[in-house]
Amino acid sequence: xxxxxxxxxxxxxxxxxxxxxxxxxxxxxxxxxxxxxxxxxxxxxxxxxxxxxxxxxxxxxxxxxxxxxxxxxxxxxxxxxxxxxxxxxxxxxxxxxxxxxxxxxxxxxxxxxxxxxxxxxxxxxxxxxxxxxxxxxxxxxxxxxxxxxxxxxxxxxxxxxxxxxxxxxxxxxxxxxxxxxxxxxxxxxxxxxxxxxxxxxxxxxxxxxxxxxxxxxxxxxxxxxxxxxxxxxxxxxxxxxxxxxxxxxxxxxxxxxxxxxxxxxxxxxxxxxxxxxxxxxxxxxxxxxxxxxxxxxxxxxxxxxxxxxxxxxxxxxxxxxxxxxxxx
Length: 328
Known about the structure:
Strand content: under 5%
Shape: globular
Helix content: over 70%
Order of helices and strands: HHHHHHEHHHHEHH
Strand order of the largest sheet: 1-2
Structural class: mainly alpha
Number of domains: 2
Distance between the termini: 40 Å
């Protein structure tokens, strides 16, 4: 096939994938606009669309992978083209993420992003998804890794943090827990948020970057982008201090998640841990009186409660990854 025809075919395929991406995004975002206001349905309908629209993609990719000869390793590109593809996907993802966050304060860009990534990997790069960490072998071990990873990183952080607050104020800082909301949010946070973010930053970006640079630089680069990815939540109302704190926190989390992926080469534990992270801690109902009392304490006490728990859990998590986690 002449080179010009190949280029035209590649451009046509790329255009169709981008079109599918924005059509899926439009369906989900428009469902938010037309959902009944002043009710829970304003959130539930787009979330339901986000989950349901994953089903045809899953069915299609299974058939496509079975019928198409796909490479078992990512395509080899020069640095310029590889970096262009990474930042092009990042920019496309942000183009939907920003209006989604500003208009609905919800991450409705997740399912469109999964479409974009899966179609790019399978159709454009002609590579099997397993090369980017989507592995279904040893699911029990993978989920155990994910659960342990979450328990050490998030569970230990919260335990130490609340223990310190109790030490300062003499009151239990946790009042109760909303189990129903946590259970309802888990599917979206796992199948939409977890899959999309782990696939983009650890699966796609880190995998490609490790073929061009050292593993440490690849982990650092995807963590920087992962931190920057979270600036949107403090745009409206604009809060630069909270934005900087959130970016720094998610950057550090990106480093730990990236290190885990470099050892396991499997996204399943990270997707599971990501879903747990986003659906379990947010529904802790704190003791307002204890928290308000602690807010009157000096800034260095707040810094201690903020930094020390994460430092302890991060060290414990790194040791767990280094000495326990193996390739799954």
